[in-house]
Amino acid sequence: MADEEDHALVADGETPTEFALMANNENKVFDNSLYSKECRKNTESLNNKIDELKIDIEDLKNDLDEANAYRHSYKLGRDDLEVRIAKYKEREV
Predict the structure, then answer these.
(1) E strand or H helix at 72, and its extent?
(2) pTM score, two decimals?
(3) Burial status of residue 9 (CB atoms within 10 A of its CB: 0-12, 13-18, 19 or more)
(4) Distance CA 42, CA 15 (A)
């Protein structure tokens, strides 16, 4: 009797639809698995890039601090030199 019902389903065209749905669902599970691995890989890659950029930012901050210290020293030296030049010019006159 069960065989007769199965044959009836095939005759009605329902079985191919069921198989198609099953195949489709299996592919989605497989694709989701691959998608999850790709997402994990991409997330790790992006996190590594973020970490590298954080290190670069710290290096740039240190470089900026060093450049500001040099600039400050330069300004002090320039100001001192301008004072000396002004005194020298006063003596000439």
Answers:
(1) helix 14-92
(2) 0.50
(3) middle
(4) 40
**pLDDT beyond 90 at 30:** no
Q: In this structure, what DSSP letter does residue 13 have?
A: T
Select from 30, 10, 12, 33 the least CA-distant residue to 22: 30
**Region 52-81: what's the mean pLDDT?**
97
- Given a contact cutoff of 8 angstroms between Cβ atoms, the answer to whether 6 and 15 are in contact is yes
Lowest mean pLDDT among 15-29, 40-54, 55-69: 15-29
Per DSSP, the three-state class of 12 is helix
Question: Which value, to the nearest 10 degrees, does the dihedral of the CA atoms of residues 16, 19, 23, 28 take?
Answer: 100
